[in-house]
Amino acid sequence: MGGMELEKGMKLIDENGRRIDGRRPDELRPIKIEAGVLKRAEGSAYVEWGNNKVLAAVYGPREAHPRHNQKAERAIVQCRYNMAPFSVTDRKRPGPDRRSNEISKVIAEAFSNVIFLEQFPRTAVGVYIEVLQADAGTRCAGITAGSVALADAGIPMKDLVVAVASGKVGGVVCLDLNKEEDNFGEADVPMGVAPRTGDLVLLQMDGHLTAAEFDQAMKYSMNAANQIYELQRDALRRRYAVSLEDLKVEMQREAPPPAEEEPKYDVYYDAQPGVQE
Ligand code: CDP
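# cytidine-5'-diphosphate complex -> structure
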């Protein structure tokens, strides 16, 4: 699947230690994040991460339905991770499946760790993640987009969540596997972290790593998480800067037009006590 077809046993790491897309083991794919891309949702974000394209939208906190889902002392987080039929090479059958249910569940749990849920009893915060184009690492791209969308919606949180995966391909521990590496590699470890506290809010492992390889993978991921965190904060800053610009335009529009002739007033100076004019 994907743009490049690989045969089993094909070299994933070349003689110079480069990966099939030219990256070094510790290199991320290019990442772009934009906040506030949808008008109707309360919060939204769009992420391009290598060949992944992911959209996230947030609603809430709103009264949770059905009511038996409500928690008397806190909000619940509802997440729907969905892949568009056209997001993968073999058209994906629309609707939920085992994989998307699992991913929705782990993402909801990741966000539950950072949102101040006890501030909104009986409500639900809804996070909708739509994968438009998939190239491995969509759950990480989805979480990264989702947490920017949550911040854009003004949901109080301890921190943003950043997610990134590391794994092993051709016997080498590598950061941020692409589709071919994910398909033909030996292991993939997606993780989610709240960088300010260092709390791990998601950790999964597909395949096998030795303890030393796992440590190396986590080092790569933690380091990359800090880079991605900066991109998330940048996206939110840009979003906020745009609103300030809009506000300025709005204020100028509302200011009364300058008078054609300056009204003339007599100007009085109050004499200071004891001072002779
Ligand atoms: O996307 P992520 O790495 O979080 O999850 P995965 O289950 O490890 O899937 C890896 C990749 O396989 C996805 O990103 C898609 O590119 C691809 N995939 C697919 O082509 N068709 C599916 N039905 C599911 C996944």
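# post-check
The CA atoms of residues 193 and 199 lie 6 Å apart.
The chain has one domain: 31-239.
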